[in-house]
């Protein structure tokens, strides 16, 4: 059996990461590339996608970028048509894209649908599109889904976030059970609050200097046993582990990375 250190590698793997142009997604793209993967950077932001690909190349890694609106099914279909032409397989799909919904219960039907489409339908569509390529992999193919601790802890700030992320959690577990006989693994990354550009959005803040936001943030950090927010590379390291040969018997697992908040 290989030494544990040699198992924590993504050498030669082809990995798709959505929302890979910033925050946890970008940190994961850079980490996967550092571990030896060819990273397919997928994001709606063209300039930032190009920036991430460039940064990976500058660090000696391998990557390509695709600008895709995951709410546009034709765009998702086009992505997988292009990937099927360029690659004989995919080894890892990291469904990271998602966003908190509007605060409270005063939301419109359109706001609800957008949140559910991005948080739940987008990873479903990506899973459907990637499956033919994942089935061609002989490298313990892996699907990773980002949910959040809001999937298991009620979120008064965003009930739509809790509802849709709980859906992601159970969808991923269903995928894990369904695909285990084929050797395809599926696991869930469950972050608490993390220092990313999206953080103010979670609190519906007007800006990063919003006094109400800063007060809520300080209150939240005071509840976390480790006394701080998470950092993107800390989540990226867990995602890389789940994608690697170091986790060959892990499927259907939900890994919480929240500084101990959910331990209460």
UniProtKB/TrEMBL annotation:
Q: What CDD domains is this protein classified in?
A: SDR_c (cd05233)
Gene3D superfamilies in the record: NAD(P)-binding Rossmann-like Domain
The molecular function GO annotations come to:
oxidoreductase activity
Task: Provide the alphabetized UniProt keywords.
Answer: Oxidoreductase
> Which residues belong to the signal peptide in this entry?
none
Family indicated by similarity? Belongs to the short-chain dehydrogenases/reductases (SDR) family.
Q: What is this protein called?
A: SDR family oxidoreductase
Protein species of origin: Baekduia soli
């Amino acid at each position: 059996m290989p030494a544990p250190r040699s198992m924590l590698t993504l050498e030669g793997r082809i990995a798709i990461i959505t929302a890979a142009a910033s925050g946890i997604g970008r940190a994961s793209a850079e980490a996967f590339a550092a571990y030896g993967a060819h990273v397919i950077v997928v994001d709606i932001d063209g300039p930032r996608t190009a920036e991430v690909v460039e940064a990976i190349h500058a660090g000696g890694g391998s990557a390509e970028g695709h600008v895709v609106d995951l709410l546009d099914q034709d765009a998702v279909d086009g992505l997988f048509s292009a990937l099927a032409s360029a690659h004989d397989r995919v080894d890892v799909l990291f469904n990271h894209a998602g966003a908190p919904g509007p605060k409270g219960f005063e939301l419109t039907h359109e706001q609800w649908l957008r949140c559910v489409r991005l948080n739940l339908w987008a990873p479903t569509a990506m899973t459907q599109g990637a499956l033919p390529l994942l089935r061609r992999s002989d490298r313990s193919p892996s699907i990773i889904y980002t949910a959040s601790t809001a999937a298991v802890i009620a979120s008064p700030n965003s009930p739509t976030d809790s509802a849709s992320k709980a859906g992601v959690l159970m969808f991923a577990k269903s995928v894990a059970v369904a695909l285990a006989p084929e050797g395809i693994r599926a696991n869930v990354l469950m972050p608490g609050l993390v220092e990313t550009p999206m953080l103010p959005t979670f609190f519906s803040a007007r800006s990063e200097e919003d006094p109400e936001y800063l007060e809520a943030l300080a209150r939240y950090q005071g509840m976390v046993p480790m006394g701080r927010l998470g950092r993107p590379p800390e989540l990226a390291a867990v995602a890389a582990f789940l994608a690697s040969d170091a986790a060959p018997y892990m499927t259907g697992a939900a890994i919480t990375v929240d500084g101990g908040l959910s331990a209460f």
